[in-house]
């Protein structure tokens, strides 16, 4: 299993081009299932493990795909769609595979999908997805770890989410675009990736209004046409590089990302003493000395993203004072705390709250990544730590960050992948 070997304590400086967003690319690839005839083109797709898993799921359903990795472009043709099943082996690798439920119910009238089960950040149920499709006329049976749904056909409904679900909103949108009648999602997720999906679907002929807000309305249409769409830039990757600049007392510029998608993150970084400069094209973060402590509560967009909780915790662990971070999105997203402690961080957790007493220096040690974002947080902490560190299980990081070691190296980091 690959490891990262990092010599920390080196100031990072330079520019990075931000890649396409994994969490926008996945639903958009899956949305190609909705197009009965012709080839769709998806550009700016990151070359990540999760993308390859997604192509396997689509291939299993009978979709033809071709990934030009040089051009970051995928061509997809779902005219030969025959399958309705997402098997356990693939679901186990990536729970976002559950997003095929909406398109399959809409186009095939049935779907048999392995239940995702728990994961390293908590139980992650799919009850809101299920409730929504039931309101749209689907019925479900659970058998042998699979959720088998039928819809004859899927029809429009008003869906009230108990809480905003990112992929839940995407799943319902994809089901609703080909359903009979009008669907309204109340308390929808407002994330920019949901907006990107809606824009792509609209270009394919869907009728959608209100994306980016908590109320989204979708009017079902007979069919969608092939589309050509460039995936939005990855706001999480961009923020990770900006924090890498700050935590090493350096200066990093990220290009290609919209500052608007990171407003609260940039505001928090500024509150911590990080100097932020934005242009239409780029965001620059720099920090002289130690960061100031802060209070953070993770919350659905436009709140502070749970996906950056570990990264910001790494930064607070070297702050000049005590910070408090509350995780309200996922039940169990503090697995990185014990690993940060191995690097010398002083963190106590009680329930959903972590109190971080900033220390002057972290020091290198062997640590283990438990999920994509926890892994990224550890990379950041190791970049700041004095001496040598090793991160194991970097396959988690590879699910969400394309060649992170090469890009950090280009900023001056001493990081090496060892196989
Ligand atoms: N929830 C339910 N029932 C549901 C759905 C969600 O109780 O039916 C709960 C979850 O357990 C969680 C909260 O609602 O406590 C929010 O979950 P959400 O459904 O929004 O998360 P998701 O759609 O499964 C996506 C991202 C995650 C990201 C979250 C939150 C993708 C493919 N995944 O997950 O990304 O953390 O939204 O923003 O878009 C990652 O990229 O590393 C990652 C985990």
Protein described:
- The structure is a single chain.
- The longest helix is centred in the middle third of the chain and has 13 residues, at about 235-245.
- The chain contains 14 helices and 24 strands.
- The protein has helices at about 20-30, 50-60, 90-95, 100-110, 125-135, 165-175, 190-205, 235-245, 265-270, 310-315, 335-340, 370-385, 395-400, 405-410, and strands at about 5, 15, 40-45, 65-70, 75, 85, 110-115, 140-145, 145-150, 160, 180-185, 205-210, 215-220, 230, 250-255, 275-280, 280-285, 295, 320-325, 345-350, 355, 365-370, 390, 415-419.
- It is about 30% helix and about 25% strand.
- The chain has about 425 residues and is of the alpha/beta class.
- Strands 22-23-1-24 form a 4-stranded mixed sheet. A 4-stranded mixed sheet has the order 2-15-17-16, with helices on one face. Strands 4-5-3-14 form a 4-stranded mixed sheet, with helices on one face.
- It folds into 2 domains: about 5-20 and about 235-419, UDP-n-acetylglucosamine1-carboxyvinyl-transferase, Chain (Alpha-beta prism), CATH 3.65.10; about 20-230, Enolpyruvate transferase domain (UDP-n-acetylglucosamine1-carboxyvinyl-transferase, Chain), CATH 3.65.10.10.
- The protein starts with a strand and ends with a strand.
- The mean pLDDT is about 95.
- The structure holds uridine-diphosphate-2(N-acetylglucosaminyl) butyric acid.
- Uridine-diphosphate-2(N-acetylglucosaminyl) butyric acid (EPU) binds near residues 124, 127, 128, 165 and 329.
- Uridine-diphosphate-2(N-acetylglucosaminyl) butyric acid binds near residues 26 and 96.
């Amino acid at each position: 299993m690959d490891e990262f070997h990092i010599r920390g304590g080196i100031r990072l400086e330079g520019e990075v081009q931000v890649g396409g967003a994994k969490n926008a690319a996945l639903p958009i690839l899956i949305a190609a299932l909705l197009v009965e005839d012709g080839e769709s083109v998806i550009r700016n797709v990151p070359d990540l493990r999760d993308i390859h898993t997604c192509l396997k799921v689509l291939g299993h359903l009978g979709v033809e795909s071709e990934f030009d990795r040089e051009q970051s472009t995928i061509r997809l043709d779902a005219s030969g769609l025959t399958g309705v099943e997402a098997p356990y082996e693939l679901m186990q690798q990536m729970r976002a595979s559950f997003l095929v439920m909406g398109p399959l119910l809409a186009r095939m009238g049935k779907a048999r999908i392995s239940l995702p089960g728990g994961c390293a950040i908590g139980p992650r149920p799919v009850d809101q997805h299920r409730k929504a499709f039931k309101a749209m006329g689907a019925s479900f049976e659970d058998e042998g770890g699979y959720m088998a749904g039928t819809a004859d056909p899927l029809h429009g409904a008003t869906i009230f989410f108990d809480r905003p679900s990112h992929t839940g909103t995407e799943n319902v949108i994809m089901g609703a675009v080909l359903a009979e009648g009008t669907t309204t999602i109340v308390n929808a997720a407002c994330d920019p990736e949901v907006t990107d999906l809606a824009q792509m679907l609209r270009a394919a002929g869907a009728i959608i209004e209100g994306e980016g807000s908590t109320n989204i309305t979708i009017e079902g249409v007979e069919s969608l046409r092939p589309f050509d769409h460039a995936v939005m830039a990855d706001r999480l990757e961009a923020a990770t590089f900006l924090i890498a600049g700050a935590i090493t007392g350096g200066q990093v510029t990220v290009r290609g990302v919209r500052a608007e998608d990171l407003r609260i993150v940039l505001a928090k970084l500024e509150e911590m003493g990080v100097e932020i400069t934005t242009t239409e094209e780029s965001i620059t973060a720099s920090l002289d000395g130690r960061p100031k402590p802060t209070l953070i509560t993770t919350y659905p967009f436009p709140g502070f993203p749970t996906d950056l909780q570990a990264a910001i915790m790494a930064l607070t662990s070297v702050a000049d004072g005590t910070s408090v971070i509350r995780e309200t999105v996922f039940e169990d997203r503090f697995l990185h705390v014990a690993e940060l402690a191995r690097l010398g961080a002083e963190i106590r957790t009680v329930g959903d709250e972590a109190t971080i007493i900033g220390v002057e220096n972290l020091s290198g040690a062997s640590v283990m990544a438990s999920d994509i974002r926890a892994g990224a947080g550890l990379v950041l902490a190791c970049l700041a730590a004095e001496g040598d560190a090793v991160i194991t299980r970097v396959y988690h990081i590879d699910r969400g960050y394309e060649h992170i070691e090469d890009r950090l190296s280009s900023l001056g980091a001493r990081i090496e992948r060892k196989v």
